[in-house]
Amino acid sequence: MQLKSIEIIGFKSFADKTLIHFPGGMTGIVGPNGSGKSNIAESIRWVMGEQSAKNLRGSRMPDVIFSGSADRRSLGMASVTLTLDNSDHFIKTPFDTLKLSRKLFRNGDSSYYLNEKQCRLKDITDLFLDTGIGQGSLSIISQGNVEQIFNSKPEDRRSIIENVAGVYKYKQHKTTAQKEIDQTTDNLNRVEDIISELQ
Ligand code: ATP
């Protein structure tokens, strides 16, 4: 699996459509302070489903939309599209190429797309579960992240290790199954109540 390119429109400092190619090997992005290097990393985090505006250095999610500059009006929408070469099927899907997109409008309307078809956030997060590259993973280390990991509580550090080790997916399946069992038990209890009332 390889990151091929990213297209950014209206996200943070990228008012104009910007296409960045990653030709393989190692890519370095250099530029003066405040030129938008971290915004590129954040756009990748965002399109993979980041839900916390705080993790993107904002207070509300619409803060990621270009807010204007001295010579430009603000925009009404941010859109990011990530293209991945998945010909080795590292991500468990039949697609050789994966195109993920996320759009957000100022009124809060937001949508996700997988290979140009609208999908749910869950479809995106499920895709990356236990690959080590999904939402909240450590494949993107932001400024201050290392310090935060060292200072985190043991349980939080444990969940990082579980995510990397591939245990997290099974924990999520267990939680879902447990909820279904609880709901079914409630339903059975209700049926038993009705039967005893009828007898
Ligand atoms: P450094 O090297 O100092 O870490 P950087 O190259 O990583 O800097 P970023 O932090 O990515 O730079 O970009 C910061 C710039 O992005 C600031 O100029 C800020 O005003 C701009 N910016 C952030 N959010 C928005 C937004 N919603 N609209 C317009 N500009 C924004």
Write the topology of this structure.
Elements: E1 2-9, E2 18-21, H1 37-47, E3 77-85, E4 97-105, E5 110-114, E6 117-119, H2 121-128, H3 145-151, H4 154-165, H5 168-198
Antiparallel strand pairs: 1-2, 1-3, 3-4, 4-5, 5-6
The protein binds adenosine-5'-triphosphate.
Adenosine-5'-triphosphate binds at residues 12-13, 31, 33-39, 63-67.
Which structural class should the secondary elements be placed in?
alpha+beta
Q: What is the count of helical runs?
A: 5
Quote the CATH topology of the domain at 2-133.
Rossmann fold
Radius of gyration: 21 Å
Query: What is the helical fraction, as a range of percent?
Result: 25-40%
Order of helices and strands: EEHEEEEHHHH
Identify the overall geometry. globular
CATH superfamily name of the domain at 2-133? Answer: P-loop containing nucleotide triphosphate hydrolases
pLDDT averaged over residues: 91
Strand order of the largest sheet: 2-1-3-4-5-6
Q: Tell me how many strands there are.
A: 6
- The CATH architecture classification of the domain at 2-133 is 3-Layer(aba) Sandwich
**What portion of the residues fall into strands of 2 or more residues?**
15-25%
Would you kindly provide a written description of the structure presented here, covering whatever features stand out?
The protein is of the alpha+beta class. The chain has a domain at 2-133: Rossmann fold (3-Layer(aba) Sandwich), CATH 3.40.50. The protein has helices at 37-47, 121-128, 145-151, 154-165, 168-198, and strands at residues 2-9, 18-21, 77-85, 97-105, 110-114, 117-119. It has a six-stranded antiparallel sheet. The termini are far apart. The model has no long low-confidence stretch (mean pLDDT 91). Adenosine-5'-triphosphate binds at residues 12-13, 31, 33-39, 63-67.
